[in-house]
């Protein structure tokens, strides 16, 4: 094993730049892809103008709620500037929180408390209007609850009397604590949600990383194809061990090398994207690495030229990533046909599973391949 390790190190020394490129590709490509995609997502937010004419606490809270919506880019400005930018189609629409907003809400008057201005190019006005209407409805509901409490106090002659402000504040506090209309997004096995109030990213970071990791593994395992060529295989036949044992030991070396870089990538990505992790996720990564190493190894055994190997590895990687839910969600597909989850090694990894059907089947195939050859040398 020592001689094989030294020989492999000599090969790596001659191909150091290429080796480092493929080892660092998953983390670099993942960071660049997710960062660029999230920036693009932010750039595609709906631009609206917001004019606040009411200087009350409830109007400020409504303004903050609109500003916190991850799908809307809010620009606060005065009325004249807002209408000019709307006319120039720099804004999709303009919303005005009218003076007396809190007073009208308190009096159960919902007419003309928020005014909207649109143009003939206001393509996203309807969803924005519905979102803002839901925030107004929330304030109206709190005010309505305060009036009902006041009526109940008078009807049942309760000694303690709560003010309108106290009831509204309590209603808002309960809503925030219970989070009835709020969802924090997190990935499987993530201890704490980390994307709250930072916008909703549509990309699964670990799915993107796994896609590049598998593609990298395929390209790094081109050594199997190269060393099966007749000219090289003749020289390897002079070894004191069977050719299959030689391949297996090199496979183990690559397994440890890629496994070490996987853990490094995992730690850096977790810190870069502020993702929490635990021991079960580390075990899932080790299992995934073992699985895709066997996939790449057994796949490369079927090729004799690197050209056909490369052009075959790319679509296989993309297909497995798509069907496994690494690039696009497939939860609905899996709920309808459960067997789809067994078509790709990505799905068990994204779910945090350590033992999967892919791992078991590949271990059996790998063992049959190795021991059948070993018996030929017995």
UniProtKB/TrEMBL annotation:
MF (Gene Ontology): ABC-type transporter activity
Pfam families xrefs: ABC2_membrane_3 (PF12698)
Keywords: Membrane, Transmembrane, Transmembrane helix
InterPro entries attached to this UniProt entry: ABC2_TM (IPR013525)
Record localization: Membrane
GO cellular component entries: membrane
Residue stretches making up the ABC-2 type transporter transmembrane domain: 19-352
Membrane-related topology note: Multi-pass membrane protein
Protein name: ABC-2 type transporter transmembrane domain-containing protein
Organism placement in taxonomy: Bacteria, Bacillati, Bacillota, Bacilli, Bacillales
């Amino acid at each position: 094993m020592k001689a094989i390790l030294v020989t492999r190190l000599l090969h790596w020394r001659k191909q150091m730049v290429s080796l480092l490129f493929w080892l660092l590709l998953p983390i670099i490509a993942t960071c660049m892809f997710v960062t660029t995609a999230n920036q693009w997502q932010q750039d595609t937010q709906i631009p609206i103008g917001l004019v606040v004419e009411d200087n009350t606490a409830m109007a400020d809270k409504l303004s903050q709620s609109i500003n916190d919506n991850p799908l809307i880019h809010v620009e606060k400005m005065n009325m004249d500037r807002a209408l000019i930018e709307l006319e120039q189609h720099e804004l999709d629409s303009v919303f005005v929180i009218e003076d007396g907003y809190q007073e009208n809400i308190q009096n159960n008057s919902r007419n003309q408390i928020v005014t909207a201005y649109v143009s003939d190019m206001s393509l996203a006005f309807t969803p924005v209007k519905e979102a803002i209407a839901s925030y107004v409805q929330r304030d109206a509901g709190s005010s309505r609850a305060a009036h009902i409490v006041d009526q109940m106090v008078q009807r049942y002659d309760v000694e303690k009397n709560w003010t309108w402000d106290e009831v509204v504040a309590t209603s808002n506090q309960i809503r925030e604590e219970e989070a009835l209309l709020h969802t924090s997004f997190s990935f499987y096995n993530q201890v704490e949600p980390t994307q709250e109030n930072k916008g909703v990213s549509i990309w699964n970071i670990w799915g993107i990383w796994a896609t590049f990791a598998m593609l990298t593994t395929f390209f790094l395992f081109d050594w199997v194809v190269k060393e099966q060529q007749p000219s090289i295989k003749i020289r390897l036949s002079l070894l004191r061990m069977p050719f299959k044992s030689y391949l297996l030991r090199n496979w183990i070396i690559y397994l440890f090398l890629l496994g070490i870089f996987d853990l490094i990538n995992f730690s850096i990505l977790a810190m870069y994207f502020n993702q929490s992790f635990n021991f079960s996720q580390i075990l899932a990564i080790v299992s995934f690495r073992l699985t895709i190493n066997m996939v790449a190894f057994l796949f490369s055994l079927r090729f004799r030229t690197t050209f056909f190997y490369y052009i075959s590895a790319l679509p296989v990687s993309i297909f497995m990533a798509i069907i496994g839910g690494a690039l696009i969600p497939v939860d609905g597909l899996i709920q309808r046909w459960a067997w789809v989850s067994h078509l790709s090694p990505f799905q068990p990894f994204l779910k945090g599973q350590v033992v999967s059907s892919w791992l078991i089947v590949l271990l059996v195939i790998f063992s049959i391949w190795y021991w059948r050859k070993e018996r030929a040398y017995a």
